[in-house]
Specification:
The chain has about 675 residues and is α+β, with helices and mostly antiparallel strands. The chain contains 25 helices and 24 strands. The strands form 6 sheets. Strands 12, 13, 14, 15, 16, 17 and 18 form a 7-stranded antiparallel β-sheet that branches. It is globular. About 30% of the residues are buried. Bound molecules: 2-(butylsulfanyl)adenosine. The site of 2-(butylsulfanyl)adenosine has 15 residues, from strand 3 and strand 8.
Amino acid sequence: MKAEEAKLRIDELSRQLRQHNHNYYVLSSPVISDYEFDMLLEELIRLETEYPQFSDPNSPAKRIGGVITKDFPTVTHKTPMLSLSNTYSEEEIIAFGQRIRKDLDKDPDYVCELKYDGVAISITYEQGNFIRAVTRGDGTQGDDVTANIRTIRSIPLLLHGDHPQELEIRGEIFLPHKGFEKINREREEAGEPLFANPRNSASGSVKMQDSSEVAKRPLDCIFYSIHGKNLPFDSHYENLMEAKKWGFKISEYIIKTKDQQQIFNFIHEMEGARPELPFDIDGVVIKVNDFLQQQDLGFTAKSPRWAIAYKFMAEQATTRLLSVSYQVGRTGAVTPVANLEPVPLAGTIVKRASLHNADIITKLDLHDGDLLQVEKGGDIIPKITGVVKKDRKADAGPIHFIDECPDCGTKLLKHEDEAAHFCPNDAACPPQIKGRIEHFISRRAMDIDSLGEGKVEILYENGIIRSVADLYTIKYNDILGLEKVYPAEDDKKERKVSFKDKTTENIINGIRASLKVPFERVLFALGIRHVGETVAKILARHFKSIDAVASANMEALIDIHEIGEKIARSVVDYFSNPETRELINLLKEAGLQMNIPENESTIPQLLDGKTFVVSGTFDDHSRDEIKEMIEHYGGKSTTSLSAKTNYLLAGANAGPSKLEKAEKSGIEILDLPQFLELLK
Ligand code: IVH
């Protein structure tokens, strides 16, 4: 094929694919099969690879991602991305209308739309081309996440129709329920932690470093506001309707009205429709339609006076208690779980809810077969909020918390100052051992990702590992050929996990690679109670070696700025156990990093005990680099100002509210040269 021919074909394929994308993702009415679509896309990718001179950043071939971003550049919004004032009360909606009538001297047109529960995004188009996508950030500045957002199929990369030459459009990125469940199913199978709700998974996705991973997530985007100089109308609703013609996805659930009753009808209708919607909403937004009227009404410090969000209460359902089961975690804590008659709630089917501890069971006065009220708020994790007592049968017996560990039969204990019962048999109780190993290999600890959850279980059940030290003596032939079939459960299919050649090799390599994991993460991986990532880092930097941590007494520990009595007690208890000492010796022999290397420990900890908040941008350093520098010299960096903050390090465009607060509370404000002076 000649170059000109290739160019023509690339243009034609791009045009067709754009149209098919729009049909499928925006209009939900595809006209060709997925297979036909994939064939066209493959051809385009092939041609663009062969003729890179004709490849365009906004080509439909770029939807599959591939760009890696380490640090997302900070971008200042042309107009700040404000938030909405919220209310749960209809009276306040009436008051909102009265205030507006008073200010404008008449009733304006209002637009009612859904309040999507996702992450806000601002996208700039120039001459109809997708140019840049920026997160809301602190409202003034956000992160440039262009490469990731380009992969979202319902966002047009090239506009059609009579669109303005320069345009900023804002909307909400979200994960529909189906997509959310799919991702969590995949994560569960891979032994990765589950997302708590669709919003968390959407915001996590937007900030991923590898855009081809984002492309695999079925994200969607609905737009709700348009900004720019040459917009076709001076009103919100009319512009949104035009934007639909340019290729944007605009909500079907939107009305324009002057009538307050219609506003309430819309609110009630949407509250009723909420359980059936395929995505999460948390309320309805009411906006004044006309731009001039919006201008007249103006803004408060944080939100426009021309809009308000009516938020829905958490969704509720009632269902019956089938039984209570008990789960033992890696620290031995026993959590009661209510097994429920399956009930649809906020887009998913609820079958279980945590009862947290014995006190909650007592407080609910839970009885066999009780009819329960279940609620789901911001979190996808359901909560039992009450019992319908009048429904209870006369002979229903109360639920008693168990006395013995459901896994190993040991008598449970309870510390007076803690709510949870625990199984003290930490040395031999299977879920505790497996839990500790799973924690040890997890991503933020030793990061042995070739050993997902199901695999630890197989190694444990075959007697190959009894403690994390055993991982380091595993030989290829010990584990090759092991397998287990996990039966189908809930909506998960039956699956077989087997240790074939490649898997086994990956596991052995993964374990070997973990010998390089730095000391602070090894300390975290041990799973000492109350020693999370941050505390592990503090202990590692302070004591510099495992021997020094192990021989520290209460006093020496409490002397450290961030360490309190509870953590200190837990560390001392942990290391006074002879089994711990044995484990540490084995891990040392295996070659794990048990101290901070000499050259690192000589860095003067000039910022020890000092807490910084970094705001704004700096010429030669990214904010992350500066934060690293702070930690490197022993300081701490946090995101918001508090009584513990010592310095606000302010760059260009530092948050005005931060500057104001720092001044008011007498927190020293530094510029970059002053900060560097501290390090001399
Ligand atoms: S309008 C100042 N419309 O809610 C105008 N926002 O609290 C603010 N949101 O960050 C934006 N659905 O992420 C608007 N239909 C909608 C919305 C909406 C969800 C989010 C948005 C914003 C937050 C404001």
